[in-house]
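Exercise 7. Predict the joint structure of the components listed below.
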Amino acid sequence: MIDALTGVLLIPAVAAALLAVLPGYRLTARLNVLAAFLSFATAVSLFIVEPVSGPYLLVDDLNKVFIVLTTFVGFTTSAFSASYIGHEIEIGRLTPTYVRFYHAMYQVLMFAMNLALVANNIGLMWVAIEMATLTTVLMVGIYRTHEALEAAWKYFILGSVGIALALFGTILVYMAARPVIGEGLYAMVWTVLVTKAAQFDPALLNVAFVFLLLGYGTKVGLAPLHAWLPDAHAEGPTPISAVLSGLLLNVALYALLRFKMLLALNPAALTPGPLMVTMGLISCVFAAFMLYRRRDIKRMFAYSSIEHMGIIVFAFGMGGPLANFAALLHMTMHSLTKSAIFYAVGHIAQVKGTQKIADMGGLTVTNPVLGWGLVLGVVAIAGLPPLGIFMSEFLVVSSTFAREPWLVLILVFGILVGLGGLFLRLNTIVFGEPVGPTAPAQASYVPMFAHLAIVAMAGIYMPPALVTGFQNVARLLG
Amino acid sequence: MRGITFDIAHMLAGSLVLVSFMQLYQDRLYALLNIYALHALVLAASVAWQAFIQDAPHLYLTAMIALVFKAIIIPVALHRIIVKLGIHREIETVVGVGPAMLLGMGLVALAMVVMLRVTAEADPLAREDLAFALSVVLLGLLMMVTRRNAVSQVIGFMSLENGLVLAATGAKGMPLVVEISIAFSVLIAFIVIGIFLFRIRERFDTVDVQALDRFRGERQ
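Solution:
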């Protein structure tokens, strides 16, 4: 019996196998979009009929939000990817064989991310995140240039070390659970772990969480473990940058949140909050300052992702229903906005034939749709009202200000510094004298403006159903 | 049960740490590769012994994978790569042998202090195994940061994974899912590495990672 839960895994898996063998770019690009859309539709159906969770797969309020977000951005990115890859073939940057490989890998990545989100077993979740890491390593290196190889190598080494530490943490959690639950499968199952977490050995859980935080934190891109992130974003194909920023960071964060919930259930264990708050703040402020010296447009937005992941981890670390709500909203808004920005950046880099900021200029004159799209995206990501990120940042700040005013001041400082950096660079890119080639872009603007429309909408009006949904999840997170 | 079975398990896990130390001071790639094969061999013996004392037949499979794949196939393949690339010259180390050994000792002490303290209530075999495993993991990490050569970084990573396998098998009754996944991930990792090494060769004529640092996307 195939329910929606196996559906979100089966569709990408089958699509990956098909895409690996089918020839022809036009057909495969469309098939990729179709598969991503079907995954999204299946994910939405999780809200209508909730499948039964087993010892391996699980669906609850928390991961439903993540799955729908992942499959939605996966779908829009596949639409963007179709026009992006078309141009890459035209200019000969990718050969048909590589495109076939790319499409198959795209679906494998979607499969791995969905598996990480629905896994009810901490071992299975680890395997899925490792799989997602390895697929993205291959995708980052796909152009085979100096920079791409270096970025992929760096990502591979740092990502593997992170993943290895996370596995050690996972083993420690099992060791803590074994005396209580007994040997075997059930000592690794979420739904069982959470019922017995109060009796686990707190010392083991503490050490386990430190390893998990370092391990999965590397994948979230928290400073000082972020070194792989800007390179991997800058050198891979732009659709992959969008997926990395918009989705993969969230998936690693999701893993971290699950373990945080586990620790929260054990009164004697350390509270994970302060650790997460510290790392979040460091990431936010550090990345904000790093924005000023960027010369590569994709690296700049990669640093902006580190900044926003810092804000999100800070808010989750503060905890409580309000801060969690704000963090969830911010995560959703960041995923949508950042991927929209990367859609714009991808086409801009194709028009200009470079990613160097110095070689761009006057985009609002030469390519008005792209230029103004980017302006809108940056206005959104910088957190200006009335867009969605302003709402979520405002909620993060207001929900935590009463509790830790000094920490929030540091956070606001980081956000403002980041805002300055973004606008400084944006100014050279879109205004002033046109620089470089000015050919019109062969672009599909629908995915970009669809995302921006949702973000703008969320800043003004949020559907009550969504608000209650997020509130439920926020309460679940404790 | 603190009899001879415990002592043997203890000895094998301890030997793994010792072999990790031996890796630290190898300054030739061939020698390093041979020591890595020895590392995998000790791991296989240790896992097989765990399978015997835990009466867990599926662990023999893990031991077999360690023996065949890690102790034979990977070293042979890497040996070929080294010959093909003509890089069997000295390894360039970032930190000298003396400081590296001292750092290694510090890390092992750290691993012992952390793990023995937090696992006071676990059974003695598991807790000592875990302490040794963490030592191997940390020594693998140290190896990765003290080497500049891509091949020796990969060997460092693989010995780190050996430490993880030791930890996973020491945790009694851990589901098979994980062991297979580890073996699987090593396999994939190796393919990735293999491809990368060739691609790096193709582009750079060197596998010295330092040479890859020339271009950072930021310089003009």
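Discussion. Chain A touches chain B through 55 residues (CB under 8 Å).
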